[in-house]
Amino acid sequence: MQTILAKSGYLTPERAEQVAAAERRTREIDRQLIAGKLRAGCGVFPKYATASLDDLDYIERVAPEALEDYRWVRDELERLLEAPAMIVLRGENGPGKTHLASGLVNRFCDHCRPAKYTTAADFFLELKSTFNESGRTQMDLVKRYRGYDILVLDEIEVRSDSTWENQVLRSLIDARYASNVATVLITNKTEVELHTYFSPAIRDRLREDGAIIACEWSSLRGRRIPR
Questions:
Q1: Looking at the predicted structure, is the pLDDT value of residue 10 above 60?
Q2: Average pLDDT of the residues of the chain
Q3: What mean pLDDT comes out for the span 69-95?
Q4: Which residue, among 121, 69, 74, has the nearest Cα to 99 in the 3D structure?
Q5: Distance CA 121, CA 158 (A)
Q6: CB of 189 within 8 A of CB of 89?
């Protein structure tokens, strides 16, 4: 349309720039709408709705001794935007694992990429809710979870650990691995415990295309911000 108008003499360079600027604004508005819709459905807890990978000021003020390690973990997670992989984020209670993962999910949404945060317990509760329910099937739900550009499963040890759950989890991870999308598992277990907790198939996935990342600094909970 611009070319036709320009050839006919109706679109001056100044007007062409105005039209281009309007188109850029429209695209940005569309991007913000898509990102907002993705954020609304991503599952991140309200407490972490504004969490960002750039939230370093708080760490610098309340736990400066942890800043370097925290930033390194942040950078490793951020790489998943460009290089999908399977990451296990482990550590004791309180170092900010859920905050980091929520910030990562929010970042994917802001890039207009489908993302999901959930706990393992909630995932399996949702899966079981499809049993004997008309119009909803286990396969449909699992297929949806396979399709996110990033999936965060928090508290992976807080579940029944039944044979069925382990099979579903392994199948989901395998499917996401085959689809070349990012998966983050969060746990309080130690690395030694993880070697016996994970099935051989999941351990193979970690060795081939992933990593266990430790958040080993002290808990950030309850720390007061210095004045």
A1: no
A2: 87
A3: 94
A4: 74
A5: 6
A6: no
